[in-house]
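Exercise: predict the structure of this protein bound to adenosine-5'-diphosphate.
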Amino acid sequence: MKKEIHIIYKEIETKDLARKLAQKILSEKTSQKPIVIGLLGDLGAGKTTFLQGFANGLGVKERVLSPTFVILRKFKIKRRFFYHIDCYRLKSPKELLDLGFKEIIHNHLNIIAVEWADKVKKIMPKNSIWIKIDSMGENKRRIIIDKLC
Ligand SMILES: Nc1ncnc2c1ncn2[C@@H]1O[C@H](COP(=O)(O)OP(=O)(O)O)[C@@H](O)[C@H]1O
Ligand SMILES: [Mg+2]
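Solution:
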């Protein structure tokens, strides 16, 4: 995957971009491996909004809400599972390990997205996809998708 930089002017475009990424991930021949996505960006940047579009692209039917207080939510999708993790309230990566993170990221059926992934960077897999969202105004965002952060 090549580094992509997107300038976005509306919330719907963020969701569309995310939906396309999800569809691309599902269609890849190599999709029989765990996929881990780390999201970076300040509060209100659009990480959860992005993941709502992403989940939609994966085929999640339920409403995707921020898992800030529960840390982790699991959704069943066709043949696979989508994990939505939010590290905002974590004090250390160990708290995520205690929730079974290692097992989750090694199961080839799982697609995992981690908000505030900078807080658990040292336990993120080397081949993670990184998504950085910067707010550039009320609705304008810069979204960088890259293999490296
Ligand atoms: N282009 C955009 N992309 C994403 N969110 C946007 C955009 N424009 C405005 N917003 C708003 O910014 C807020 C982003 O919130 P949220 O996704 O919860 O951020 P985070 O999870 O990064 O804290 C939402 O209120 C959303 O409606
Ligand atoms: Mg959020």
